[in-house]
Write a structure and sequence with these properties.
Two copies of one chain form a homodimer. By secondary structure, chain A is of the alpha+beta class. The first copy, chain A, contains 14 helices and 26 strands. Chain A has helices at residues 12-22, 39-58, 72-75, 79-85, 125-135, 180-200, 247-251, 276-285, 311-330, 345-354, 365-370, 391-416, 424-433, 446-456, and strands spanning 26-28, 35-37, 62-63, 69-71, 91-94, 97-99, 106-108, 113-120, 144-153, 167-177, 207-210, 222-229, 235-245, 255-257, 263-265, 267-274, 302-307, 335-337, 359-364, 372-377, 383-387, 418-420, 437-441, 459-464, 469-473, 480-488. Chains A, B: Catalyzes the attachment of proline to tRNA(Pro) in a two-step reaction: proline is first activated by ATP to form Pro-AMP and then transferred to the acceptor end of tRNA(Pro).
């Protein structure tokens, strides 16, 4: 146990929980299932938001904001939707408390009962499509490409920081289109945006695929997903994009007149990623020493630690560091100078290692005299001496290199953990001993899918988009199958 | 009635409501008191957020996120706080709905009753100070400078878009300090930040002052405020910054050990601005033609409208516009080319005027031949011809000029609408006929303040910070007073 962290390979789950707390990312609150995202964690989420928001805007979307509370009757307008969400809704029934100033303290005022109960949005399709009814009349109003950054609530019984919380932060895109084809293209485009973000910012390789009927979003015609693999061999659904067909348009009577003046129902999509991505980011890269953050999402990219014997040396170092800081900032590199005087360098090293800062520079008087500094990268722990002459360019290159390397490591791990399996005994064995994705034939029925889940806890994560079509036999029933799908235990 | 807008001077209130709707800023939702912020409105709010967030970070604050739901018992820990907020809380009592699939449809599941009811945060002091208890042990943990962007809910009976809604978006800063002096300085610093933002981004002049005991925040020792004047002579509280003393630290038992190892209660502040600022922005500048947006917050700063007789001309214009767009973008100016082919230029002019775009450029073939374009500014409606040679610099300068002019107009209006009054008859007369701020002596008692409010609907907006001390007699009771305070009817 290093730095108070449980060993990752011995107890992955305890390691994750302690890591999240010790690195000040988040903590549990007194309200069951609701977390507090602490400043360091929130700074990472902000970086995610900025990158995603830019990608959404670059693909023509605009932001808006819809109400937190939804009349409960809205939920029941779409039959599958209500089945999917009714069981986990927080319900507002009253609008006033009463201070009795007596023994009872503050009580719910029985006179302030709502006529119709309101639920806290678990997702906003209903309230948004109810609004789209008045926003959309003609083909000229389409496409409508709206995104919302918001908090949502799903009353989960078992919660874990970031991975599954009752309240979480997310973005939800809700678009409306004149044609089926356009809506499907949008669904796929946003899946691509998510995959791009996961791979190029989070450095987490993902598999793009489609969910089975059993696993799709409640109210969707089809759900596309990106699936990532964590270091314990469990999969994590990192983002979903839903083709809603005309389901919500029909439920909320949203029609438009086309160019020939015919009234038609609108086609819809919705897509979202959440603070769950924080969990994926942490679990995909970090190690026994702490977090490993990809440079593009690290709130602090470079930390500088001074090493001085006396005040005179320190002042000389401070002067030199000012110049380095300035040079790094000019290249938009976020740098922190850790000049806390009560702490030893070794303590600082361990602290920033724990926090996952990608690059650490240490600088002493001798370094200045030699015109070089010692640089340690967080991912490989490799130590190098670099000239101070063009240190900012060197560091910029190093950050790119680290970003790429973190991705490559995760990709290599994933490649080693997709196992083709043709027999159910082997299926169970691989799942138990190795984990990861299992690529196996499946007969396409919900019954088999459920049976396998019951027996192994593995679910079908997705049918990969670029799937090879091949003749085969279902790994469980032996019935004919035309393609393999990916199974895994999942978060 | 122009563009379907009621006349501003005839019916300010109807003008405001229609303006907000017609310009696609916001609309009412089906949930009473909850608004939908539409994309154009949200784009302005995003610009406000960005500017404020930068100012918060520049003053050393970090963002975090705390739970939406608060156990109702938390509210009662601070006696004034519960009195102030209990009456307007949305209360969550259950965590599950049940789909009966019968006549009743979806009902609240009686088996899913919470042990302790939760309220939707009306503000987050309680949940945050409950958290600070574990974050703060030593003077080394201080100051703690945290901000949160969030939605909050206060169950208002009379609501108006942006100005008073049950759910609204805001930021709330919550800081903790080792000394009283430091906390007071923070309170004042954030008031200055708000004033800076209001004047330099929103172009709305504000008066900084302190609230009376009667008007201060429930739980604060003192509340500082910035007060703005709308074009109908009513005041609007645009932001508040509270010195909390040790009230919340005592209520939640938050102590730190100082350098001498003595345990002390922490000193606190909180401060917030909300989507209410959108109402202030709209009401402070706009006119009968529509919105007038200060360039710094306008989602579109420049619109270009082509004027062509035929396709050939249009193509020539398109080419030239591409260059102009590029030049403007290089100076970070947001530009939209309105090349909708089904609409006449006159319609487009009116449309963008309604939407408050600060600068409109129209360009025809003759303009290109002459090397100049026609430019109309939204604030003064002034029309000028400018050379195409250095058009981007010209426009950049013009935008600065417009920003300043809008502020100056508002400042001049406000100067003309602060009236010194020494008799109560005059007080009532000025309030009825002219409105605006009334500067009058007040005897310092809550009784007089309440009586004046009862008789005139005017409240004490603030005791200005830079107030002149002068002997005088209370405008209502005639009792001695040492300074004037500002009264007004308010939003």
């Amino acid at each position: 146990m290093k730095k108070g962290l449980p060993n990752r390979s011995a107890d992955y789950s305890a390691w994750y929980n302690e890591l999240v707390k010790k690195t000040d990312l988040a903590e549990n609150s007194a309200v069951r299932g609701s977390m507090i995202i602490k400043p360091y964690g929130f700074a990472i989420w902000e970086k995610m938001q900025q990158a995603l928001d830019k990608m959404f805007k670059d693909t023509g979307h605009v932001n808006a904001y819809f109400p937190l509370l939804i009349p409960k009757s809205y939920l029941s307008k779409e039959a599958d939707h209500v089945d999917g969400f009714a069981k986990e809704c927080a319900v507002v029934t009253h609008y006033r408390l009463k201070n009795t100033e007596g023994e009872d303290g503050v009580i719910v005022d029985p006179d302030a009962k709502l006529e119709e109960e309101l639920i806290i949005r678990p997702t906003s399709e209903t309230v948004i499509w109810n609004t789209y009814k008045s926003w959309i009349q003609s083909y000229r109003d389409l496409p409508l490409l709206v995104n919302q950054w918001a908090n949502v609530m799903r009353w989960e019984m078992r919660t874990r920081l970031f991975l599954r919380t009752a309240e979480f932060l997310w973005q939800e895109g809700h678009t409306a289109h004149a044609t089926k084809e356009e809506a499907i293209n949008e669904t796929k485009q946003m899946l691509d945006v998510y995959a791009d973000f996961a791979e190029n910012f989070m450095a987490v390789p993902v598999i793009k695929g489609i969910k089975t009927e059993n696993e799709k979003f409640a109210g969707a015609v089809s759900t596309f997903t990106i699936e990532a693999l964590m270091q314990d061999g469990k999969a994590l659904q990192a983002g979903t994009s839903h083709f809603l067909g005309q389901n919500f348009a029909k439920a909320f009577d949203v029609k438009f007149s086309d160019k020939e003046n015919n009234l038609q129902h609108v086609w819809g999509t919705s897509w979202g990623v959440s603070t769950r991505l924080m969990g994926a980011l942490i679990m995909a890269h970090s190690d026994d020493e702490g977090l490993v953050l990809p440079p593009k999402l690290a709130p602090i990219q470079v930390v500088i630690v001074p090493i001085s014997k006396n005040q005179e040396e320190l002042e000389q170092i401070n002067e030199r560091v000012k110049i380095i800081q300035k040079e790094l900032k000019e290249l938009d590199i976020t740098v922190k100078y850790d000049d806390r005087d009560s702490l030893r360098p070794g303590f600082k090293y361990a602290d920033w290692e724990l926090k996952g800062v990608p690059v650490r520079i240490s600088i002493g008087k001798r370094d200045i005299d030699n015109g070089s500094v010692e640089v340690v990268r967080r991912d490989t722990k490799e130590k190098n001496s670099y000239s101070l002459n063009n240190i900012s360019e060197t560091i910029a290159e190093l950050l790119d290199n680290i970003q790429q390397n973190i991705f490559n490591s995760a990709l290599s791990y994933r490649s080693q953990n997709i196992t083709k399996v043709d027999h159910f005994d082997e299926f169970k064995k691989v799942l138990d001993e190795k984990g990861g994705f299992i690529s196996a034939h499946w007969d396409g029925t919900v019954e088999t899918e459920k049976k396998i889940k019951e027996l192994t806890k593995a679910t079908i994560r997705c049918i990969p988009l670029d799937n090879l079509q091949e003749e085969g036999k279902c790994v469980y029933t032996g019935n004919p199958s035309s393609q393999r799908v990916l199974f895994a235990k999942a978060y």
